[in-house]
């Protein structure tokens, strides 16, 4: 009943929902600046008779249905945009210079908003016997993610399980990628600053060669790491920035190298800072340089709970027996992982490629998700709610 109602509701409100998405897309706001987005969401939810709870800064959540001892079903959407210039040429292109919903968060937000409004209408006509919470989270795109603040503000209090979707431009519309276990990677940032007495390149033996030390770090650390960590865990160290020197015939006194460390294994992630520090010491020990390691802990991997993922797959199959595909494990980071450190849940990949033309990537200015994916997402969340209700019965 829930799934059918939500599906019919979307069919009847499709034009309104698409207008919501285009409004959000036209007016993107970067992390922790989602003031107008929060106002728009709050206003729309109130129009549907709901009482949203605003977070202290930006973002909000809303409850539908009663509190029960079994706890609420939660859906999460991220509402921030990226500092990316849009080049899609769409009629509803971003009106904010240099800012764009280049990660599909406008799609996620619209799906969650439509789900909340549909369930609100359903609850008025046929009161739910369980509770739902829809979380509109700010600042997913910044370190270490707004999820930690949202959790601190009480968003998971009374929550039984939590679900989310993320658009996938490599997957055709109508397909829903599910995966038990790690679906994203932990993502940390490492920076190593090296220093020593500089000198003339004709007399390297009289100096500590900082540039040579940086080269050793660049080449030796990834290799050493691959011999200390199980390769099946998807642990990858990649450097993206190197800085040192000012002249071809002068050995500089300082230099730095920075990059990202990613792994799909939660145990390795928890121990990685200690291991990495040990490897840096070993590489630099013979070279006579001083160093400082700055290790920025990021987000853990999104670890989809087996039971929740099975429920998600069953919900997807209920709306389309051909919908479910196996999602690949991604090396990207996602702060939905922080919720799953507290309660069980699962994130799905939502196909948003039209099936024609080029497959654009996330975080790029030409990303243009097919809006038909919104309906798929709303119906999926409605089906999840029905599956959840059946399990609780």
From TrEMBL:
The Mn(2+) ion enhances activity. Keywords: Carboxypeptidase, Hydrolase, Manganese, Metal-binding, Protease. It comes from the Bacteria. Mn(2+) binds at residues 103, 105, 141, 166, 363. The keyword Metal-binding applies. One of its GO terms (molecular function) is metal ion binding. It holds the Pfam family M20_dimer. Gene3D superfamilies: 3.30.70.360, Zn peptidases (3.40.630.10). The keyword Protease applies. SUPFAM superfamilies: Bacterial exopeptidase dimerisation domain, Zn-dependent exopeptidases. Its cofactor is Mn(2+). Residues 190-283 form the Peptidase M20 dimerisation domain. This is Metal-dependentamidase/aminoacylase/carboxypeptidase. It comes from Corynebacterium aurimucosum (strain ATCC 700975 / DSM 44827 / CIP 107346 / CN-1) (Corynebacterium nigricans).
């Amino acid at each position: 009943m829930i799934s059918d109602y939500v599906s019919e509701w979307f069919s009847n409100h499709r034009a309104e929902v698409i207008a919501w998405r285009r409004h959000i897309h036209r007016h993107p706001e970067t992390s922790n600046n989602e003031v107008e987005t929060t106002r728009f969401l709050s206003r729309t939810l109130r129009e549907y008779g709901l009482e949203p709870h605003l977070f202290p800064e930006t973002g909000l959540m809303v409850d539908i249905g009663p509190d029960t001892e079994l706890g609420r079903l939660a859906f999460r959407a991220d509402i921030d945009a990226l500092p990316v210039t849009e080049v899609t040429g769409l009629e509803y292109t971003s009106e904010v210079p240099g800012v764009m919903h280049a990660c599909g968060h406008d799609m996620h937000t619209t799906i969650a908003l439509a789900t909340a409004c549909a369930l609100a209408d359903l609850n008025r006509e046929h009161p739910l016997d369980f509770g739902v919470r829809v979380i509109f989270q700010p600042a997913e795109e910044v370190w270490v993610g707004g999820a930690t603040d949202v959790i601190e503000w009480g968003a998971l209090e009374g929550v039984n399980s939590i679900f989310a979707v993320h658009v996938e431009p490599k997957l055709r519309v109508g397909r829903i990628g599910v995966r038990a276990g790690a679906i994203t990677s932990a993502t940390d940032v490492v920076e190593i600053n090296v220093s020593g007495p500089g000198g003339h390149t004709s007399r390297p033996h009289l100096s500590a060669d900082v540039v040579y030390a940086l080269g050793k770090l660049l080449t030796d650390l990834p290799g050493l790491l691959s011999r200390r960590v199980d390769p099946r865990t998807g642990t990858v160290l990649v450097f993206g920035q190197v800085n040192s020197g000012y002249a071809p015939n002068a050995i500089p006194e300082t230099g730095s190298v920075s990059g990202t460390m990613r792994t799909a294994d939660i145990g390795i992630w928890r121990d990685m800072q200690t291991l990495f520090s040990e490897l840096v010491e070993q590489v630099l020990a013979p070279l006579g340089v001083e160093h400082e390691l700055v290790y920025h802990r990021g987000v853990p991997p999104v670890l989809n709970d087996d039971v929740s993922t099975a429920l998600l797959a069953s919900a997807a199959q209920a709306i389309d027996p051909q919908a479910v595909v196996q999602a690949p494990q991604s090396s990207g980071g996602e702060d939905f992982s922080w919720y799953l450190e507290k309660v069980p849940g699962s994130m799905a990949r939502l196909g948003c490629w039209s099936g024609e033309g080029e497959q654009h990537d996330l975080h790029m200015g030409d990303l243009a998700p097919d809006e038909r994916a919104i309906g798929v997402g709303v119906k999926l969340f409605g089906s999840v709610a029905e599956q959840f209700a059946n399990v609780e019965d």
